[in-house]
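Methods — Computational structure assignment.
A single polypeptide chain was analysed. Its primary sequence is given first, followed by the predicted tertiary structure written as structure tokens.
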Amino acid sequence: MNIKIGDLVARYSYDCDIIFRVVAIHDGMVELIGEELRLAADAPLPDLKKIEKVDRKEYEKTARENEEHYYRLFRKEARIMKERNDHEASGDYKENTSYFEMRGRVLHIDGDPNYLAKCTALYERLGIPVYGVHLSEREMPAQVRSLLEMVRPDILVVTGHDAYLSASGETNDIKAYRNSKLFGETVREARKVVPQLDQLIIFAGACQSNFEWLLKAGANFASSPERVNIHALDPVYIAAKISLTPFMERVGVLELIRHTLTGREGLGGVETKGVLRKGLPWRKEHS
């Protein structure tokens, strides 16, 4: 079978349940990353089914429809939040309701350039200020400090690909994960710059990541409590919700996780303040 880097494939041994993209081939083994899920895996060449052109078109059509569904969900959440903020502002600023908003700025560090592009497109559609950076998971711990000092974000997202390898240890063994240790090291480095949980909101993790390890490292939100896969856009939803929540309010974990694509099996965290600030006066010529 002519499988090459960039092809979409599925694994026969898993009933072709997940679509992967081929990222490397060596000695008959193929390195894979999920096309919609933040999962890293490998498989022998004979175990792979290539997604042919006809199937690929159908898959891509379904993926676009799913993403548009997610976009509508996010936009609805953003609209509800804005309407509530407008209503509250009319009471806070009775003399002058022409106010402006300072939404939380996001630094999104992603191990997958394709996912980074999808995520930044969603941030921009929601009007969330974002600075996106593609780094391999191995580079993240060394680079995060300088990026934080340059961007000065309110919210940090550290994500990419991960996997729990049961053959390598129990779920509490950090050595049994592909990249959880690196995500945790990145969070620790970030906390050396901004220690307080409410001054820098951090989401960390990917599919099947060691949730407890990442929270102990200093993340506000992380994946994955039940070591399940998460969707590529889950971190964006969490970051966007916090960015649009006023800083005088707290984001309830259950409320936040309930509206994610993956749910409480894949995502969790601690009660956290929003970061949106209102101000006035708003002058149209300066907008």
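Note: Helices lie at 53-92, 113-126, 140-151, 180-193, 211-217, 234-243, 253-258.
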